[in-house]
Amino acid sequence: MIIASEVHKHFGGFRAVDGASIEIADGSITGLIGPNGAGKSTIFNVIAGVLKPTSGKVTMDGEDITGLPPHELFHKGLLRTFQIAHEFSSMTVRENLMMVPGAQAGENLLNAWFRRSQIATEEAALKRKADEVLEFLTIDHLADEKAGNLSGGQKKLLELGRTMMVDAKVVFLDEVGAGVNRTLLNTIGDAIVRLNKERGYTFCLIEHDMDFIARLCDPVIVMAEGKVLAKGKADEIMQNDAVIEAYLGTGLKNKVKEEANG
């Protein structure tokens, strides 16, 4: 579905992404891991149109989408969430969801004056869909709560809900588990798996919680210093010497091995 080929992204003399190539298969939940500064979020931003690559190519279903802005990718079904949730804090949870679909009749001033019944019909349909999404995510009890009052984990669920309002094809999730308690993280994980299996969503997620990655992701891609270091199943990745060294450094890697060997 998504192929990023020989992507480079330089900031002055710093090569944040240095010739990385990754592939996200249709229907997969792909994990992207690596130490801080590995280039994970940068390549996310390049694929999602937030940053233009210095060089390289990104395709989606065979179509060249390199450098397309986020709003164009949004209409193609490619969405990206951020490590820090971006909710409209003074609006309710339901209203946050209802705002997502584009080209709503109420956005046109003439419609607001002369086609109020059309706007009312559309808003009723959006409300029904938002309530279905909230029920799917098991946060329907928060529908009328101000989004700014939600916990970190609940805000991550709300961001996931936004992708459901437009029936996304592929969703990039940046550290969905950051600052989220274990119970809510399990709820988020369940929702991702259900969206993948029941609705055909493709996911690629950055995450540092290896238990979460191992539960959800196949394959797992490892980045280090702007390059792809390894790719495989989670259990294989966690036994890979190069991956262990990239995360822990040579000294700690040897210590871990000594402890494992008794």
UniProtKB/TrEMBL annotation:
User: Could you tell me which SMART domains the record lists for this protein?
Assistant: AAA
Give a Gene Ontology cellular component term annotated to this protein. plasma membrane
Q: Which UniProt keywords apply?
A: ATP-binding, Nucleotide-binding, Transport
What is an example of a Pfam family matching this protein?
BCA_ABC_TP_C
Q: Which InterPro entries match?
A: AAA+_ATPase, ABC_AA/LPS_Transport, ABC_transporter-like_ATP-bd, ABC_transporter-like_CS, BCA_ABC_TP_C, P-loop_NTPase
Q: Which CDD domains match?
A: ABC_Mj1267_LivG_branched (cd03219)
- Report if keyword Transport is assigned: yes
Question: Does the entry feature the keyword ATP-binding, yes or no?
Answer: yes
Domain ABC transporter as annotated: residue spans? 2-250
The UniProt GO MF terms for this protein read: ATP binding; ATP hydrolysis activity
Against SUPFAM superfamilies, the record matches this protein to: P-loop containing nucleoside triphosphate hydrolases
Protein name as it appears in the record: Branched-chain amino acid ABC transporter ATPase
In its UniProt entry, the species of origin is given as Actibacterium mucosum KCTC 23349
